[in-house]
Amino acid sequence: MVTAAAYAVTSSEGAFEKTAIERRELGPLDVLIEIKFAGICHSDIHTARNEWGSTQYPVVPGHEIAGVVSAVGSDVTKHRVGDRVGVGCFVDSCGECDACRADEEQYCVNRVTGTYNAKGRDGEWTQGGYSTHIVVTERFVLSIPDGLDLDVAAPLLCAGITLYSPLAHWGAGPGKKVAVVGMGGLGHVGVKIAHAMGAEVTVLSQSLGKKDDGLKFGADNYYATSDPSTFTQLRGKFDLIVNTVSVNLDIDAYMSMLAINGTLVELGLPEKPIEVRAFSLAANRRSLAGSMVGGIAQTQEMLDFCAEHGIGAEIEVISADEIDGAYDRVVGSDVRYRFVIDTATI
Q: Kind of pairing, strands 90-92 and 200-205?
């Protein structure tokens, strides 16, 4: 067993406290990772504060993990001691269902095992990256290319693949007009990736407050959705809209901006069910879809793509004792654009 220092919460209203957790003994196919940086995702906040109603306390969040291999099991072939590696949103799947065989482990029919707050197939609850070490089966460990610094790479393990997967699946590229709704922790990475893919990129944000950033990240256009004329100007314009915000929007208004055969992809998780009129779908043969991260192979593809194009998250590095304040700032939209914990401070 490996004892790791960690930061955990023990109740929905509790503050993070330093603790010690036991990582499983290294098996033949396991990799022991010394975590260097852990990104803060809004999913961490929902889980720590039990906003989804399924938190098993105590919980150590964190599924945007970047670090260095410190030991490997006897049968490991993909990674060596000293390699720069990452771990994303899940650490196991059945490996046998159609989804797993198609490298779409995130849709495992027999339940993917989340990096934290999930019961593993060994019956133990998983604990995440707000810690100094983690043990993960080699199949779920990603290689971080040398062209990416570990701190800016960490958020790519969730935010990056969450945007890369739908952009790749729906063919963002030259000749395609793509809109990114929201310029936050997810959206800003989406702008960078869509631009690098060669698409014409438009940001649709509540205000123009982040316009300079959006254009710097590669957006060709930037519109405020608080201005009703935006929806008139952009009617029928986009081949693909990716919605990164987790509030209930007027989906019909956004669907009106899709061209013939256009698709709006929901990435955010709003509190209430999504409402859409049938006519919004029928007109222009539009589609409303969803997407959830990507499989291991596609996540590695995303990391290689980001390294090739110099794409990293825009981050603010914090110490572990600043997690509670960082959570409040994320909820208050007071970060540009992703918090990353320096785990050396744990």
A: unpaired
pTM score of the predicted model: 0.95
Burial class (CB in 10 A: 0-12, 13-18, 19+), 189: buried
Output phi, psi for 286, to 5 deg. -85, 160
Query: What is d(CA 24, CA 27) in angstroms, rounded to the nearest whole number?
Result: 8
Give residue 74's identity as a one-letter amino acid code: S
Instruction: Give per-residue pLDDT as tens, 214-271.
Output: 999 999 999 999 999 999 999 999 999 999 998 899 999 999 999 999 999 999 888 7
Q: Measure the N-to-C terminal CA separation of the chain; round to a whole number of Å.
A: 19
- The distance between the two most distant Cα atoms of the chain, rounded to a whole number of Å, is 62
For 308, phi then psi, to 5°, come to -60, -35
Nearest to 172 by CA among 192, 198, 190: 198
56 by DSSP, 3-state: which? coil
